[in-house]
Write a structure and sequence with these properties.
single chain; 268 residues; alpha/beta; Rossmann fold; seven-stranded mixed sheet; 7 helices; 7 strands; globular; binds S-adenosylmethionine
Length: 268
């Protein structure tokens, strides 16, 4: 399958999903970001993230998020004294909402609608810090291509922080019902072919709809680590947590599995 087909299908699918997210959020972000100190990083699991960010220190730094969706996390990160921020995402609807929120907040954040794999060379060695958060990596068929862009955009000694859903949490994407113990429904950790969310991507409002075709890829922890290391980024911290970030009710109580992880890296 062509990489362009994957990106463009995912763009359409995310444009469709964003309308459901916006309906469910009912302008709460537009109201919230009237206060530039508003944050969406206030879930229980964000405490660990915030401590890591404080340790790295974002004061007067130039930062990016890729992909950034509607920019709410990047706008929230501005509270750490960031000088300039740019969010990249392929969804037209996400970027137009992100620009609206930036305008409302008056924070120095810009947003670009672009396929991450095609970010312009003018951003080479531009960023002190790149943030990647939950639900980002699995849209990219080849993580080597993805981390080559991350590495290209980071300054020498620039930092990378990934706060992601653990691949183990994706075992349960096929509607695993723990009470019935239907293990045959688990997605394989080693699955290579893409997965399609037929019921849609409305993890905000929980509405099921006939979703446009999208492509999502299972990446093993070793795939993620190897792709980072092969792109001139040193891994300085790797931690696994049982915190659930995926809004997946069927796995909320599975605290025996790693469900999220943080990687901190530094460009050599
Ligand atoms: C779950 S969000 C991740 C960001 C954030 N953590 C969030 O939850 O909103 C996934 C985002 O990936 C974006 N995306 C998917 N493929 C992309 C690509 N090739 N280039 C840029 N953005 C992409 C989608 O548009 C979507 O906004």
């Amino acid at each position: 399958m062509k990489k362009k087909t994957v990106s463009e299908s995912n763009r359409d699918a995310w444009n469709q999903a964003l309308k459901y997210h916006q309906k469910a959020r009912n302008n709460s972000l537009q109201i919230g970001f009237k206060n530039p100190k508003f944050t969406t990083l206030n879930r229980d699991c964000d405490e660990i993230l915030i401590n890591k960010i404080k340790n790295i220190g974002l004061s007067v730094k130039t930062i990016a998020q890729m992909p950034c969706n509607n920019g709410r996390e990047l706008l929230s990160l501005m509270q750490f004294g960031v000088k300039e921020a740019i969010g990249f995402d392929i969804s037209d609807i996400a970027i137009s909402e992100a620009r609206e929120l930036a305008e409302i907040s008056k924070l120095n954040v810009k947003f670009e609608r672009v396929d991450i794999l095609e970010i312009d060379d003018k951003y080479n060695s531009y960023f002190d810090f790149i943030y990647i958060s939950e639900g980002s990596l699995q849209w990219f068929p080849d993580l080597n291509d993805y981390f080559a862009v991350v590495s290209r955009l980071l300054k020498k000694k620039g930092k990378l922080l990934i706060f992601e859903i653990h691949p183990f949490a994706y075992f349960f994407e096929n509607g695993f019902d723990i009470e019935k113990g239907n293990f045959e429904k688990l997605t394989s950790y080693f699955e290579k072919s893409p997965y399609n969310y037929k019921d849609g991507l409305d993890y905000v409002g929980g509405v099921e709809y006939e979703a446009k075709e999208c492509y999502w890829f299972m990446h093993k922890i070793s795939d993620i680590i190897n792709a980072i290391l092969q792109n001139d980024i040193e891994i300085q911290e790797f931690d696994e947590y049982n915190m659930e970030m995926a809004n997946n009710d069927s796995i909320k109580f599975l605290d025996k599995f790693p469900l999220s992880y943080i990687i901190v890296g530094q460009k050599k």
